[in-house]
Amino acid sequence: MITLRFINPIEWQANAVACAKRFTKSGSIIYVTVLRSHHDLLHPFQEAGIDADRVHYIDLARHPSTHKHKETTHHCTTLNSMENLNEVEIAITTTLSKVPDAALVIDAVSGLFLYHDPDTIGQFLLHITAFARSLGRDCVIVASPPENPEERSLIGMVATLADEVEGKKDLL
Fold first, then answer.
1. Which of 126, 152, 88, 37 has its CA nearest to residue 141?
2. For residues 112 and 158, what is the distance between their CA atoms, to the nearest angstrom?
3. Tens of pLDDT along 123-150?
4. Is the separation of the CB atoms in 2 and 126 below 8 Å?
5. DSSP-assigned letter for residue 80
6. pLDDT for 111-125, tens place per residue?
7. CATH: 3.90.550.10, 3.40.50.300, 3.40.190.10, 3.20.20.70. Which one for 2-171?
8. What is the pLDDT of residues 23-56, one digit of tens each?
9. With the CA atoms of 160, 125, 166 and 36 taken in that order, what torsion angle do they form, in degrees rounded to the nearest 10?
10. CA distance 131 to 140
């Protein structure tokens, strides 16, 4: 099932914990962090009792050369940036292929607007959701409320890919 989930950015961490709890009960999760490093999730996930071995991160928010945290996880792919969506797509599809029971969470799609236009982001999400569907995987695309007509247009397109829309449906 493909889900578009609108969240209030202030509730980002609580949303992340809820997604991880939901999917790690019966499998694993691949958590793609776009605007915040995966390090921002390590403690909240641990405090919520989420098994770290069931969480695989793809971190787009932190450049590998700026690794300043002592904590690491062996289930993390850190990419140089979110600029190269082909590289991001390869990382996601490879991880989905390697982790057979994993759901995918992309948090948050609005961060991709820093480097890409709506059409490019739309094509990227179309490929990712089609691949997840072909494997029978759940996928949650997290989005903040759109701030401009371009974002609203993209979110409307993403909603057409989704089986379910959670949150503020009036934003479409």
1. 126
2. 13
3. 999 999 999 999 999 999 999 888 888 8
4. no
5. S
6. 898 889 989 999 999
7. 3.40.50.300
8. 998 899 999 999 888 888 999 999 999 999 999 9
9. -160
10. 13
